[in-house]
Structure formats: C-alpha cells, structure tokens
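Changelog note: in this version the structure field was regenerated for every chain. One regenerated record is shown below for reference.
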Amino acid sequence: MSMIRDLRAVVRPSLRGKNSPTVYTNYDATRDHSASSAVVDCAVYRDGRRMKECATPHEAMVRVRESGGFAWIGLHEPTEAEFAGIAAEFGLHPLAVEDAVHAHQRPKLERYDDTLFTVFKTIHYVDHAELTSTSEVVETGEVMCFTGRDFVITVRHGGKGSLRTLRHRLQDDPELLAKGPSAVLHSIADHVVDGYIAVASAVQDDIDEVEIDVFSAPTKGSPRGVDAGRIYQLKREVLEFKRAVAPLLRPMQQLSERPMRLIDPDIQKYFRDVADHLARVHEEVVGFDELLNSILQANLAQATVAQNEDMRKITSWAAIVAVPTMICGVYGMNFDYMPETHWKYGYGIVLGGIALVCLAIHRLLKRNGWL
C-alpha cells in the first residue's frame, strides 16, 4: 500500500481548459524504468497510424505533447513498484491504481477527473475431452483500461485474453483508430463481448451433452442417470460466467447512452451494438442457469424413481419368498400329531402348492408393473 500512499501525496487533478494540453506531474525516471518488465507494448498513434516505437511511457507522452496523437501503453500484471511511475506520469487516481494492481475486481465503469477507468472480465473456454465433476469449463481474467484525452493504458491480468491481435487489427483500420482513445476502449469492449459469445456457444454444447445423458434411456450395463456432480460443476462454471457478464450491463449502457467528454460521439454509436450483444449473452447465461436447475432436478427425480422401482422389485420378491417360508415354517415344527405328515403324497402336494401360489403372485405383481 506504500505506492498508493505516495500517489495520494503527489497526484493532483489536471487543470485544463477546453483546448489546453494535459499536465502530468511528478515523473520519476527510475520508476518508469522499473515498469519496463510489465510493459508489453508502448506506442504513439497519430492520425490513426502507429509512429516509431517508444522505449518508455514517459517517452511516449513527450512525443504526444510535442506532436499530438495519443499513447497506448499495455501492461501485464504489473506490481506496485512497476506501476507507480506510470501512475504518477499520467495522473491516475490512487483508488483506480490500487484496483488495477491488485485485480479481482467487479466489472465497472468509474470516472476520475478526466480519466475513465473501466474493468472487464475476460472469459476463456477450457477445452476438455469429457465433462467431469472436477472439469474446469471457463477461465477468467481481467482487463483494466484507463482512458484519457490523449492516452490509453491497458492492464491485463491472467494468462489469456491477450490484446496483441486486437491492436494489430486496429492498426489495420486507421480511420477508426484516428478517433482516438475512445476507439480503443470500444474495440476492447467489443473484443471482450465477442469472447463471451464464443464461450456461450461452447457452454451450450456442454449443457446439451448433459441434457442428452439425463433424458436418454440407459443402455445395458451402463449406470442409470448422470453423476449429479457433473451438473453441479457445470452450474458453478456458468455462475462464474454470469458474474463476468451481468455487472458489465450498466457500464455498457452508460457508454452507449450517456454523453461523455472522453467518448467520441461517433464511437458512442458503436457502443450500442456492444451493449446489444452483451444483453443477448446475458439472457443466454441466465437461461443456462435456469436450464441447469431443471436438469439437476430432473436427474434427482429420475434417481428417486429408480430407487422406488428397485424397492418395488425387492418387495415383490420378498412377497413371493414369504409363501414357501410360511408353509415350510409350519411343517417344520416337528409336532407328532400334524395333518398329512405321514401321508404318502403330502410332500409332492405341498411343493406343488407352493409353486402354484408363487407363480400366481408373480403373475399378479408383473401385471401390475411391480416386476
């Protein structure tokens, strides 16, 4: 937390006129150098085109102040020490810096002076040969985005969700990139939501597989029903997916509907499309959750029915076995004076009577569906 205390002491809001340049304070060259291990890309863009490479974020901002354009600095899991110099250079708010360093944040959109701080949860589908009660279905990461008038700082956490492909795609569209930092923010949001759509499609396949297993007739030699642990594990993964999607609805609505000084009006129209896609994914994820609840209940109901069938069969066979048990018990008491104990045909008649009664009970129970 020492870095946060330092920032609270040195960072001051930038005082700007409508067309005045950004003012950055308290730059520390040693801190900027220490951030190099976390910086994955650092570049200046002018008129939608990438200029010469920049060695440090400070160098990038010097070029921006001299020649215009904006800087895009990408970092991966920076430490407090690595991020301190960048935070001081760009005048980032200490609370936003703290969230960006420590991660594990809820998707959100916050405004600090002339900087927008946006948190996205990235979702990656984990391929698996077979869904089990311990399978990892989705893997989450985070992308934090600081958006100013002449800079974009992206902070990524997690092994997946690289923005390198996105950066190259944007560089191939200079007309869009010329819109400035808000175009980058939109592209990141669109990239994240497109990932949600792909993951939702893959999760749908897993749910269909479980649903088929639950409602298909069991084959000979295979266990009846589906392991409830598989369904519950899939439900937990869907819940993690839902936690990434649902909180992002309001930030996307704000970016698409509320006028903001840092968002180009032309770019704001594109945010509406992102918000629409996000709403569709949210509906799908909510549907997944409800469907898994129904599948889990159906699986438990099938297990209960199967247990009842087993109990009926056991009870039926117990009723059949009770007949010879009772008759043999009577004739096994060894009294001297019992009817038919010394009769020549008594043994055969008793065995035949037992067989006939057992057969009659068996047919009656089978006709009623107990066997």
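Spot check on this record: The longest strand covers residues 115-125. The chain has twelve helices and seven strands.
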